[in-house]
Amino acid sequence: MERLPGWTAWQRHRCPSGAASGGAKGQDDIRFVSPITREGPGWRADIDLPLGVTVADVADRRARLASGRRRPLGCVWPDADPNEHEGRLILWVGDRDLSKTGIVKWQLANAGRHDIFKRLPFGIDPRGRAQSVPMSQHNILVGSLPGQGKTASVRVLACGAALDPSVELWLHENKGTGDLDSLECVSHRFVSGIDDDSIKYAADSLKLLREEVMRRAAAMKKLPRDLCPNKRITRQITDKRSLKLWPLLAVFDECQHLFAHSKYDKQAGEDAEFIIKLGRALGVILVLATQRPDKDSLPTGISGNVSIRFALRVAGQVENDMILGTSAYKNGVRATSFRPEIDAGNGYLAGATALPVVVRTAYLNDNATDAVAQRALALRKAEGTLSGITLGEGSETPAGPSYDLLADVAAVVPASEERVWNKRIAHAHCRCAACRDRLWFRYRRTHRVHRGSRGCRRDHRDHECWCLHPHPS
Q1: SS percent in the chain: helix, strand, coil, step 5
Q2: Mean pLDDT estimate for the chain
Q3: Between 376 and 471, whose confidence is greater?
Q4: What 3-state class would DSSP assign to 298?
């Protein structure tokens, strides 16, 4: 065996097997299947583990492996080889801790535009290789403890989508800190806040999205087979603006405030699950981010159906598997291993590649986000794709009954009548009998309407009525 810099014979022989053998005994020793080589800013070793030992066993003892190499934990990264058997280990040892690589520059920071149907640059892995996320036909779940870079990760995804002028953005930042405010100028719907009105706005958006999914399904059914052979939204379909089937990205940051709300929780959860299951092929992309991944604030129907998951540091096994999927912790994919604050921005990305991979996300500060938003705005103005609040349109709410008070009054009060009696207005406007009394009571309190005013007349059924003359002050 050739001796290469950075690896002693003792370390080559002992470290991987020593880490694997702690409680997981195999029948043979380890075997290096190829020479140890330099790869990026570190060294790579391809190893066959002892029989019966898996890569997950080694990942479970990563700290012991780092100790055997005498390297910081953030330098030692055991990975599986997706093209080989379960016992093939790719051990990569970096020159420096991943957390000390500094801010990762986003590949699209200075790009003119992006195509949502292509993979979106997201960050780098420990070996310095670029990592990206497919957006089209996927939904994304991001979770972590507070302060680990969750919202910054969401901002990268939202900015990437904004650079495609065909994408309609619905942004809901239910933390109220303004992290996504820069993108309001290119959003169809936008809210930032944690109050009940902001939560209601987000809940209304899910209702509207559910209706939109149903509309799109009906529209897709009518498309000719040559245009839509696979019943999925494509760039060709998107470019036919008359079809109104362009991609729609809806972000719900701090979604636990919505799904755990005392009033909107159940319906919001049902709507989100419906959208996740059916909207994927119809161009509707949900990005959900939470700092409290449990069954109450993140319904299992949602967490179980998302296709791409990103977990920065989480507290325990339950939270880990809620984000990364059942048995992720057991299989060695453990976001619990990231260190508080030190590893902020580092997380496990699952679903975007054949196997889960550690990613250090790119970072956009406020100035960089503003610059991206202005380029996105210019693109949308040039192509005429601005819509919703960016055009000053009123916020949309789910369709429901609406009434015109003046029209109701005009329908029951003849033009010849000199005085309009409030009792008749209440009966004309309120369709529900139980509602009339409440409306009447509130009006009397608000306007200090008093009994026995001049012009008041008796009602032979109620024995009294109230006129519209306020009490003299």
Answers
A1: 35, 15, 45
A2: 83
A3: 376
A4: coil
Q: Compute, in degrees rounded to 10, the torsion defined by CA atoms 362, 366, 370, 373.
A: 50
Largest CA distance in the chain: 110
DSSP code string of 81-104 = -TTS-TTEEEEEEESS-GGGS-PB
Contacting residues for 466 by C-beta, under 8 A, at least 6 apart = 422, 423, 440, 444, 449, 450, 451, 453, 456
Cα–Cα dist 305/259, whole Å: 16
Spell out the residues 6+ positions from residue 440 whose beta carbon is closer than 8 angstroms to its own: 422, 423, 426, 466
Q: Decide the pairing of beta strands 308-311 and 140-143.
A: parallel
One-letter amino acid at 37 equals T
- What pLDDT score was predicted for residue 56? 87
Residue 435, pLDDT score = 45
Helices (H) and strands (E) in the chain, counts: 14, 15
The whole-angstrom separation of Cα 179 and Cα 185 is 14
Helix 422-429 × helix 433-447 angle, to 10°: 140
Is 460 a residue whose pLDDT tops 50?
no
Kindly state the tokens that stand for 458. Answer: 């008796």
Burial of 469 (0-12, 13-18, 19+ CB in 10 A): middle
Decide: helix, strand or coil at residue 272: helix
